[in-house]
Design goal:
By secondary structure, this protein is an all-alpha fold. The chain is built from eight helices and no strands.
């Protein structure tokens, strides 16, 4: 049992550590990141309940609608809502890259608890596949969501556009991911290139966020120098 729980938790913690340690400026307080991770984990319960009701009541009969609404929209909206209401206005969200850290934290909190439940049901032999696909994809959806939230918070214009993209982009990516799994018999042939694309996009957004943070911190330093 201990080995199974460790196998379920390890991928999420490893991915969160990676994006956390990539913060090249003021590192986020561990307590704040951990709280965000826990918020994400707690989202599993209401989301699983709502999805269970949808399934029992047969609300969605189409694979397309199920992938994009029952799974993608429901999960991404709740994660986005937590970030927007609790994290976005917080004093510790003080540079663009912070969105990457908190986006990854809330998504990986969700993915980690979900992973525990799945491995308890399916067995530890599924741990590698779960780590490579569902856990990694959730992390990258969170990174992309966090990038646009960070860009929105620290942009002087088009803030509404970036906030809309912070939900719309991971929603479309997540829906596409689930649709591939639900509808294609040879899903592995399609999900592998999709995951490569997702990693490319997520790492690109993380790099762009670090550049934005560097520019933002430099502008703050210049302002202090001019008025110092």
């Amino acid at each position: 049992m201990l080995g199974l729980i460790s196998a379920a938790i390890a991928p999420g913690l490893a991915l969160l550590s990676y994006f956390y340690l990539k913060d090249q400026h003021e590192t986020e307080p561990f307590s704040m990141v951990f709280r965000t991770f826990l918020f994400g984990a707690l989202l599993v319960f209401p989301i699983m309940f709502i999805q269970y009701v949808f399934e029992v009541e047969q609300v969605f009969t189409s694979h397309f609608v199920s992938a994009f609404l029952s799974s993608s929209m429901l999960e991404e909206f709740f994660k986005w809502f937590i970030l927007l209401i609790i994290i976005y206005p917080h004093v510790h969200f003080d540079e663009p890259y912070d969105g990457i850290v908190y986006g990854a934290a809330v998504s990986l909190g969700f993915a980690t608890l979900e992973n525990i439940f799945y491995l308890l049901t399916l067995g530890i032999e599924h741990a590698l596949g779960r780590a490579l696909f569902p856990v990694s994809s959730h992390a990258l959806f969170g990174v992309i969501m966090g990038y646009y939230l960070g860009k929105g918070k620290f942009s002087k214009k088009s803030r509404g556009k970036w906030l809309c993209l912070s939900l719309a982009t991971p929603f479309l990516l997540h829906g596409t991911y689930d649709y591939i799994l639900l509808t294609l018999e040879n899903w592995l042939l399609f999900i592998v290139p999709f995951m490569i694309f997702l990693w490319w996009m997520g790492l690109k957004k993380a790099k762009q966020a670090r550049i934005l943070s560097a520019k933002y911190n430099q502008s703050l330093e210049d302002t202090r120098t001019n008025y110092g």
